[in-house]
Amino acid sequence: MFITLAIITSFLLFITLLPMAYSQHYLVRGCDFIRLQVFYIASFIACVAGYFAFNNATDFLYIVAGAVLIMFLQGKWIYPYTWLAKKRSAKCLKTHCAQCKDYVGKCTYVEP
């Protein structure tokens, strides 16, 4: 079970880190579209490995740490598209950022 979870976690980590490479190849860019699925699979693996680590199998803590790392990296990309993130308006991207010369990606203007 440990080897299976280690292989799956390694593959998911590879899929997570691959889009960070500067490449426009379709296999690399294709990993951008499966972020939510990778996040869910990593959370399932973290739960399963956490169960085994709780039962005195400390080797599984490495898998839990890897799965949490994957969830953090994927969650960083997924978060702006969830209902938890602040809503941004089109006005923010066009007029507000041009007026205050704020970086568009860091704009905090929220339409009233």
From TrEMBL:
Top-rank lineage group of the source organism: Bacteria
Record's protein name: Uncharacterized protein
Bilayer-crossing regions: 33-53, 60-79
UniProt keyword list: Membrane, Transmembrane, Transmembrane helix
